[in-house]
Every structure is written in C-alpha cells, then in structure tokens.
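Researcher: Please translate sequence to structure tokens.
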Amino acid sequence: MEEELKTLKTVGKIFGVATLALTLVNCAPSAKQLKEAIEKDPSIVFVAIEKDPEKFFEVANKAAQEAQKKAQEKQSEDETKKRDDEFANPLKAEIEDGRVIFGNKNAPVTIVEYSDFECPYCSRGYKTVHEVMKEYGDKVRIVFKHLPLEFHPQALPAAKYFEAVARQDHAKAEKFHDMMFENQKDMAAKGESYMKDAAKKLGLDMKKLEADLKDASLMKRIDADRAEAEKFGFSGTPGFLINGVSLRGAYPFPEFKKIIDRHLASAK
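Model: Translation complete:
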C-alpha cells in the first residue's frame, strides 16, 4: 500500500487530482471533495484504473501534454518580458583595452560571449557565431570571454593559452580559438600538449608564451570574466550578451537574428 500511495501522489502532482478524478466518475464534485475522497480511500483510483486503463492513460497523457504546453507558453512569456526589460536596460559588460575582438572593432552590435573551450555546447555556439559574422559582416563584433567550468579539465588551460597568445598577436589568438573549437576532441584528449603544438604552428615566440602563462595577471582576467558572467546570472555555457541583451545557451542563428535585427532597426 505504501508504494501505491507513492504512485498516487506522483500521478496527482503531475496531472492534478481533479483532472484525474473526473475521468474516473460520472459526476463532477469539487476539487476539495475529490481530494478528500481520494485521501480517505486511495483504492478508488486504482480500481478505476483497472476498470479502464486505456482511458486513464489517454486522459493522463493529454493532461501531461496540456501541462507541458502551458509551461512552455509561460516560459516564452517570461523570456519575452525579460528580453524587453534588457532592451530597455541593457546589461553592461566591461570591455578592457587590449581585449581580443573578432570582426569590425567599430561595429554597431557587440556580442560578448562567455565560453568554455571544452564545452560541446560552446562548440555549437562557435559555429553559430561564425554564421552570425558571415551574415552581418561589419555590423557585428565578438568579444570572447572565459567561463571555464570545473568539470572540463582542459577549459582553464585553454583559456590561459588563448590570453597568452593574445599578448603576442590578436589575429593569431583568433586562429588559436578556432583551432581549439574545430578540433575540440583532440584538444580535450591531448590537453596542453595539443595547445602547445597549436601555438608552435602559429609561429609564436614559445619562450614568451611560457613566461606569459605563468603571469598572475593573466589569471586575473579569467577570474574577472567568471565573476562578470556570474553577476549576469550565467551559470552554464555558452552565454551571450548582444548589445546587453542576454541569450543563455547554444541558441540557433534565428534567435541571434531576432535580437540583432531589433538593435539595428532601433539604431536607424
């Protein structure tokens, strides 16, 4: 009976006691009456299920689908409201002097990306950002920031290498960035040996690179990126700010397009 009660409670939470009971009886008592009756004698539910299990599961599935639909609609409404709020009061990321910028440095739309070189979703984000740059050209610029997650052991070393490479050449830092994402599995498997080989292929000064990797100020930048991401509520990767409007996750190109087009339209 204890297991049956657990099952009943789970069903009640998902589909609602009222919806469930109305499929099992011919009349329509109040929700309070239904709840009291089932709590007093839970066996009435199991008897009804046994009597017409197909009908029960048909209605239960329909109720679950309806509940899911309503939850999605509510989520969409909340996201729309939040987005409107951010268009009115954009989130402001700090873009320090000397930061690597992909694309036109004077572009009207700035996309700040908080990313993890080992994250598979960030790999998707990388491809989408390239799609955005191809579509919008000089109208967008990308500021790549770091949010290395603890359970990705190569994410932090890759972030450090990226910043160390940037101290020598921003264009080569962008190439390093692309190499890591385009060969993410090799990078994750081989770790720093892969990063070092990539740096050699780019023709970097390896002695300077080694020294820069040990510079404490390099780690301060990564920590500052993490802190800023947390301030904006980014707990996972990737996260994006498009002129201060957030996208939380590896959204496809059309979601970026909606925000970028709205920014460009308002700037006219």
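Researcher: Any highlights?
Model: Residues 3-11, 13-27 have pLDDT under 50 and may be disordered.
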